[in-house]
Structures are given as structure tokens and as C-alpha cells.
Amino acid sequence: MKCCIISTLYPPHIVGGAEKVTARLASALVQAGHSVTVISLHDSSETKIEMVDGVRVYYLPIDNVYWPFKTAAKPSALKRAIWHLIDMWNVKAAARVGKILDDEKPDILHCNNLTGFSVAIWSEAKKRGLKIVHTLHDYSLLCPRGTLFKQGKMCENRCGDCKVFSLPKFIASQWVDHVVGVSHYVSGKHRQFGYFKDAKHDVIRNICDGPSLPKITNTTIEKVFAFGFIGRVEQEKGIEILLQATTLLPHDKWRLFIAGRGRDEYVAALKAKYPNPNVEWLGFCKPDDFYSKIDLSIIPSLWPEPLPGVIPEAAGRNIPVILSNIGGMPEYLQMGVRGIAVPVGDVQCLVNEMKAAILGQGVMKSIQAKISDWQQEMDEKTVVERYVACYQKQLSS
Fold it and tell me: What are the Cα distances from residue 71, in Å, to 15, 66, 76?
């Protein structure tokens, strides 16, 4: 089978988890004997074509007023508005994709995040009679920010901006033949707002390493309990909730390691506001180096993350987690991940669980099964087989 996968970014250009799991799936499909082409974007004015792990990757220039990832300074409100207007229906980007589809002639089109391309590429697929499978990694079809998070809290209802900028996406979603959510939550959220009415629906988890690795013993600290946070350092990740919680812990017997980057001014403000010697800011850190330092991973997100990869990263090392009871995160606990959920944004509840962990109670007394359901669902072979089944179902219909 010849598959064309579209993703806003693709390694080595990485901002979040979506491009990592998309690359993992693409290379796994190649290993399973399929031909895979990927179309993505990069910060250059020229098109570049490379082979990455057996995958033919087109890196296209972005057809918009600025590159939106890892910008040194936040663009003006006017410039951001223009960017989103173009991204509602980007004719030039769609034409570039259409030409590649003509050259590659894939059997199926598998779309992931489309920021920078716009859903106009779906019209190019339909012109060529291609079936469309789309994977939901976030809420970018519902919300220009992709998070359903604004002014420090989760959006219970979509605001006017979301409704206006998302209208073409809503209309075009009816062209998608098969939609896949990485969690039940993200899939249900789109159906709640009427998206993908005529599409077939599936929930397929992201590929994650398993089975469980032996627990990595804390090698850097003796007799001091080590908490950890890994991810982008930004408000919606709940980093301030975690830092507030540390101010209510006893002064000794614990450490907090924060791994990840954020905007320089934001990180500097956090360090100034929470100057605690028990908190160590690591910046960018390799996962193994980070997890070797900690006893417990905390994911205090304020936005409804569909299925964050840091949870199975910890679980795969037999490190328990405390996570927010929001989005797709609690689904991990239902699948057997060792951990506990706390109400989103509830500082005192988080403090209580952290204090219990220091004493070896609460989540630290829970036991993870040898082979959990999450490991079976996120196994590479299982995920590839389920996606191939989606493709074949569409090609035979």
C-alpha cells in the first residue's frame, strides 16, 4: 500500500509530541512493508526532499506571514489575526500539496495536524478521488490555539474567535472518510461540536515503547523524595500550580526537577516568584537522564491534553504519576497506568498527594501490573495493524 501522510512538522523539526508519534508511525509502516511519503513544513523558502528512516519526506516552505513555531517574540495581534485568516483556507499551500499528490499517486491520504497547510488540502484529495483518514492529536480544528484554553483556564464553550476561524474546518470535516482520535476524549469533543458527521470513527493510541522497563533507581538523591515535571514550561501545562504546591510542602525531604524549555521571560518570572532551593531547573533534558533523577512524575495540566506522551514515558520506567483529571489523561489510569488523578488546578489536593508520596503512601503504594492494557494498546505492531485496517476499509468501500 502506498500512503501519503501529512503533518505540520516532522523530525528533525519537533515542537511537541504529535510530530514524534507521526514519525514513529510512518517508519513503522515502512518496516511493515508499505510505501510512505510524508509532506510537512519547515522554516525555509525552498522545498527540500529527504529520506528519513525509509520515509520520503517533503519539507515545504510555509505559505503564510510568519513561521509560528519557536518564535523569539510573540507576533502582534494584527499579524496573528492575518495568519489565522490565511490558515482558514490556504490556497497556495493546498496547491503545493496537490502537485505532490499528482507526482506520488498514493492510495490513501492520512492527515495529522494541519496548521500551516489548512483543511484546503482535503479539497485537493477529493478532486483526485483519494480517501482521507485524519488523526486528532489536539483541538486545532476547533480552536486556533489548538488547546481549548484561554485566559488561564479551559474553555467550557468555544468563543467567537474559535467559531469564526474554525467554520471552514467544520464544513470541510464532512469530507473526511475515517477519523481517528488518540483518546476517547478528543474524539468525543469533536463530535460534540458536530464535526465528522459522516465519517467512520476509531480510537487508536499513539505508539509507545513497552513492555515495562526495569525501574530506574534514583541515583542522584539519597533519603530525599524527588518529584519531576517534564514538558514545555508554559501556563497551560500547569507549571504554576505545581510551583504553588511546593510552597506548601515541608522545607526538607523533597526535591523538584523541572525539565523543559519555555519563553525566556516567562521562565525568568517563575524563578523569581518561586525562589526555592529545593527546585532545580534542568532546561532541556534527555528523558532517561530526567527519569533517573525522580521517584514520581507530575503532569498538572490545565488544558485538556488528548494523550500526553510523558505519562507512558514514566509508566514504562515503573515511575508512578500524578495527573490532572482532565482531557484524555485519566484514560491512562483506566488502562492500568500506575498513578492517581487530582482535580484540575486544585493546589491543595496536589499538595496532599505530594505529602502522602513523601511518606511512601498514596500513589506510591499502588502497584502496576506486569503487562498493562496501555502497553498492549500502544504497542507498535498493534497500532500499525489498526491503522492499516482503517486504510484497507476505506480502499475497499
Answer: 11, 9, 12
